[in-house]
């Protein structure tokens, strides 16, 4: 009787163990599937949506960095960009020289370490395999292709002459960007933009009410000035054939 009870208890314990292992394996497989399809779902959600929606998705992903919600990552990215800017801009270091010197240093350390282990009777260090996975590269290329195609579509729409206001805004923006580009090189401009991304969102989140109030007043003044400019200049410009076709 006791042996029969013990066998029952053992069978119940085996069933519980099998159930737990099955749940763990299924949950781990599900988590692996979710991780592998996470980036593809993000990219798929970006395609076919408006610019504001796609910007919101990207902003949610990078909010921890630019809003300093994860201070270690934010400080690391800003410190790394500052170090790169100091190396290449202030110290006038070259990218090819930096890569070669870095590889020389790493290879020398690993070579000496591997040979030193034979004298101290220890196993040589394990050098991990470094390779670029295919899936993230393809996902990045797909997302970049979508954005480039959208930019070409926007430029084509602007050049078609349908919206004079948008055309003048783009021309003014490119002109200002060309002036800024003539004052500093690309690396300095990229560093300035990177620093602004780490400071402006935080300041806006802190002083949101004051900034919104000032922006509303500035927008009202801009609309007034644009109305005067439209009445004196834009309204006197002859309309293109596309606008005539719309009226017909």
From TrEMBL:
Residues forming coiled coils: none
Subcellular localization, as worded in the UniProt entry: Endoplasmic reticulum membrane
InterPro entries: Reticulon, Reticulon-like
Tagged with keyword Transport: no
Entry keyword Endoplasmic reticulum: yes
Membrane topology annotation: Multi-pass membrane protein
Primary location class: endoplasmic reticulum
One Pfam family in the UniProt entry: Reticulon
A GO-annotated cellular component: endoplasmic reticulum membrane
Residue span, Reticulon domain: 62-248
Stretches that traverse the bilayer: 93-113, 167-197
GO biological process: response to bacterium
UniProt keywords, alphabetically: Endoplasmic reticulum, Membrane, Transmembrane, Transmembrane helix
Protein name: Reticulon-like protein
């Amino acid at each position: 009787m006791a042996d029969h009870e013990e066998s029952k208890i053992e069978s119940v314990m085996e069933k519980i163990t099998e159930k737990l292992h099955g749940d763990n394996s299924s949950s781990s497989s599900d988590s692996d599937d979710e991780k592998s399809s996470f980036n593809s779902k993000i990219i798929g959600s970006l395609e076919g949506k408006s610019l504001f929606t796609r910007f919101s998705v990207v902003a949610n992903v990078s909010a921890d960095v630019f809003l300093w919600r994860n201070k270690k990552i934010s400080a690391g990215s800003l410190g790394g960009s500052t170090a790169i800017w100091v190396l290449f801009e202030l110290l006038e270091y070259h990218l090819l020289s930096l890569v070669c010197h870095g590889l020389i240093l790493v290879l020398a350390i690993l070579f000496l370490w591997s040979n030193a282990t034979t004298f101290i009777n220890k196993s040589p260090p394990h050098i991990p395999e470094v390779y670029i996975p295919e899936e993230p590269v393809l996902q990045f290329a797909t997302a970049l292709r979508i954005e480039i195609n959208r930019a070409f579509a926007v430029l084509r729409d602007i050049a078609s002459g349908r919206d004079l206001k948008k055309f003048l805004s783009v021309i003014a923006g490119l002109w200002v960007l060309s002036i800024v580009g003539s004052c500093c090189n690309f690396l300095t401009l990229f560093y300035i933009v990177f620093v602004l991304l780490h400071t402006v969102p935080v300041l806006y989140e802190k002083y949101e009410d004051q900034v919104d109030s000032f922006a509303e007043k500035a927008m009202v003044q801009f609309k007034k000035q644009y109305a005067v400019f439209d009445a004196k200049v834009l309204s006197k410009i002859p309309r293109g054939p596309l606008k005539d076709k719309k009226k017909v």
